[in-house]
Amino acid sequence: MRRKGLWITLGLVVIATFIIIVTWQGVTTSAKTITKDDALSLIEERYKGSKVTNIELQQSAYHIKMTRESGIYEVSLNAENGDIISLKKLGDNSSGGDDRNKTIKNEKEIESILLLSSDDILSISKKTENQKDVYVAKVLENKEEYIVKVDAVTGSIVSKDKAEKTKEEKPKEENPKEENPEEGKQKEEDRPVAISKDEAIKIALEHVKGAVDDDIEIENIGGQTYYLIEIETDDDNEATVQVHTLTGKATISFDD
């Protein structure tokens, strides 16, 4: 009888120990955050050509300052999953003077900022509201239209509201009429990009060695824009490298 009671007690202890271990592992896993080096790697991968000048961990997010050709930016990065929480422009790279007295005159620079978080820009115009210059843009994000206002001096997002459809607006046709291929191609080439053609070629050659075809196109694939770079390898094979115009991510395919 005593042995039976001892075995029961021992079994209960084993079960309790197992439950404690599983619970502890769950707590430690959920509280895990990515390292500062991992955060830097994510930023360098997503924003090619950027230089990180400062990084701080506050609560559950990394706050990162970086410089690009188009200006100085601050990125908030989720410390648990690495997702981008927010991106805002702090000022221009040019030295001297007060940025508050300068206006971003290049509309494409504002479009580049908008495309970091949107799929497409439907319209954009510059206006003055409350004695401040702002850009008002209609953008497409996850198949929804939004009205976004951007400060013309700092490049930061002032407001973002879902666009209201008017009665005159009709739903887009599922199978619109085919456009002139040359007109479509030109339209895609005119879209602003965060990565230059030379940078895209450099990224492509890091993945595939060979001779680059001079005819490099920009195409929209699944709502995202890519450089299409054809490379003839040393062993007479042909490869096509797709380089994302914003993130620099490369996808490679070889011709049969």
What labels would you give this structure?
5-stranded antiparallel sheet; 4-stranded antiparallel sheet; 256 residues; extended; alpha+beta; 5 helices
Folded structure, characterized:
This protein has 256 residues and is of the alpha+beta class. The protein has five helices and 13 strands. Strands 9, 10, 11, 12 and 13 form a five-stranded antiparallel beta sheet that branches. The radius of gyration is 26 Å and the shape is extended. The termini are far apart.
Count of β-strands? 13
Q: Tell me what portion of residues adopts beta-strand conformation.
A: 35-45%
Shape, principal axes of CA atoms:
extended
- Provide the structure class: alpha+beta
Helical content (DSSP H or I, runs of 4+): 25-40%
Q: Could you list the spans in which at least 5 consecutive residues all have pLDDT below 50?
A: 95-101, 183-189
Distance between the termini: 77 Å
Helix count equals 5
